[in-house]
Amino acid sequence: MTETPSLQQQPPGLTESPAGSIYDLGYQRYEGVRLGRRHAIWALYRASLRAAFGFGRRTAAKIAPFALVVVALGPALLQLIIAAFTGDEMKLFNHEDYYELISLVLAIYVAAIAPDIVGRDQNNRTLTLYFTRAISRADYVLAKFLALVSAMLLITLVPQLVLFSANGLVASSFADYLRDEADLLLPIVGTALLGSALIASIGAAIAAQTPQRAFATVGIIATFLLTSVIAGALVSSIDSVYARLAIYLSPAALVEGLTSWMFVVEPNEGSLIPTANFELYTYALAAMVVTVACYLLLLRRYKAVQA
Amino acid sequence: MKHPTATRGDRTTLVQTSRLAKHYGSSKALENLDLTIEPGIIGLAGANGAGKSTLIKILLGIIKPTSGNAKMMGLDIDTRGTDLRQQVGYMPEHDCLALDMTATEFVGHMAEMSGLPGNAARERTAEILRHVGLFEARYRQMAGYSTGMRQRVKLAQALVHDPDFVLLDEPTNGLDPEGRDEMLDLIKRTGTKFGISVLMATHLLGEIERVCDHLVILDAGNLVHQGSLAGFTSSTETLEVEVEGDAALLATKLTALGLEATADRSHVLIATDGHAPYATIRDTIVDLDLRLVRMKQRRHMLEELFRSPAQEVSIPEPVSSEQVSD
User: Fold this and answer.
1) Same domain for B76 and B213
2) Which of A215, A247, B5, B264 yields a CA-CA distance of 20 to 30 A from B70?
């Protein structure tokens, strides 16, 4: 251990070492505040959201999420463009139809992002570093879940708000539109929150089971598609109340049902909802139950996972 | 040379365990360990499976003990885990870096995860990356880093929040001799110049002799030895005397003179307390008309504390998450 006192006097940077060698420039202890758990959860939330969209990572990691956001925003943007250029009072579609329109995008999007948010730390084994810091395992799950819900809101709430604005621009008076249609905001926000939480919790619960990105992605897409197919087959082909209960297995049907309920509209003729013939509010309840169940599953997984 | 800082837990005792045990099924990774460690640079030695990593992981709260309890810096590991982990750093044995990030981003993020505000996290990240010799490479993706550089990032993330205590698990793993030297220097400086207490787990005794001032030895989950390194090595030093002629006779004669001597073929091993009775040995050899080939200090004393490899009990690491959950 050779110490050169003169070296320590120099400002950092002047004694820059070639890569490999180490110079002692004097160590400063940190005497500032330590913000603890809440700050750590917030930091993890932000970092997870950033990583999901590929910020600070290679360009390829940015492509998929952004492309899907653009696709999800597409219909709403189209309406906005029509409003801006033609001023026509033409509505391409309504708020309550939006999720049905992008239901496949929702599934692909969560399948693309959930493995980034919850699987990556297992793959890198960074989990060890998180669990030995200022957070608990439950805090970790909370931050990750909120990050994924926020990412979902980008393709649920944001397009809905864009659509709302576009329709407002189309209307003869934006102020009148706001006054008349303000009661749409509650179902817009409500469906976005419930739907995002539902899809995020399912995606996270599946992705957390494996550090392998490919398995997680395939697993999530398969879950969304298969539940949809199974629910469809059971509900429409077997005339029994037990078979019809299978509709609650399908996240897509839950989102559709709770959307009809919140916007107080009749479900689409062609969909499973009229066939199943349950009260619409039960879909909102079922969505919450599934969300809570998946969240508990996540907690359980992270309590057991080896760090 | 600790800089006095206010309210950083109880600084007098680093680690205190009470009947701490960890069992995996029938195998016992730790057995009723009672351990008190004071601040300093502590070497945690033991063969593979001796319970070193298990002890560290229990202290950090990533595995739960089967029974017993422990405190770090006066805080109970079970009830005050998140508080105390703001004050400690951990460098795991295995890879743990998000390689698609830059060192600056990764270490900065980890600083915030330990409770540092954003600005402080950025400043300290630059600072610590300079200390570990990665200042110039700090904006590069870690995927392009060598093993040595990755080990330094691992050390940097353990130190970035200026902990009072760092726990390092096999920090020189996978390093070439040069990288090993630099890492050991860095660890020594962490303890002596940065004023941070260090617990370094290693199976390489030479590393402990180079860096540490205190020694804890585990074997098969039991405490074998604990004490200052200086006291330990001097009390167990051995002088090796090689002669041509009857080594057994020399050993008998020396034993009769009150020395602790044993014959081993042409060698006689003499235990000393740091002051070898060279004159006595020389005179005895002359009296017996033996020819002296050489005398040398044996420096492998630490190894003698371990069982021979054949007797080693290997403790299986938990292979699945299910084992850890219960």
Assistant:
1) yes
2) B5
Q: What tens digit of pLDDT does each residue of B303-315 get?
A: 555 543 433 333 3
In a domain, B101, yes or no: yes
CB atoms within 10 A of CB A96: 22
Closest CA to A251 of A185, A210, A299, A197: A197
Contact across the interface for A129 and B133, Cβ inside 8 Å: no
Residues in chain A: 307
Q: Which of A31, A61, A135 sits opposite B82 (nearest CB)?
A: A135
Least confident of A49-63, A276-290, B5-19, B265-279: B5-19
Spatial CA neighbour of B171 closest among B161, B163, B156 = B156
Give me the residues paired with residue A252 across strands: none
CA geometry: angle at B64 spanning B82 and B218, to 5°?
Answer: 110
Question: How far is A114 from A202, CA to CA, in rounded Å?
Answer: 9
- B79 and chain A in contact, CB less than 8 A: no
What would the pLDDT profile of B29-58 be if each residue is shown by its tens digit?
999 999 999 999 999 998 888 899 999 999
Containing structural domain, residue B264? 236-305
The type of residue at B220 is: A
**CA-based radius of gyration for chain A:** 24
Do A36 and B115 lie within an 8 Å CB cutoff? yes
Domain limits of chain A?
Answer: 36-304
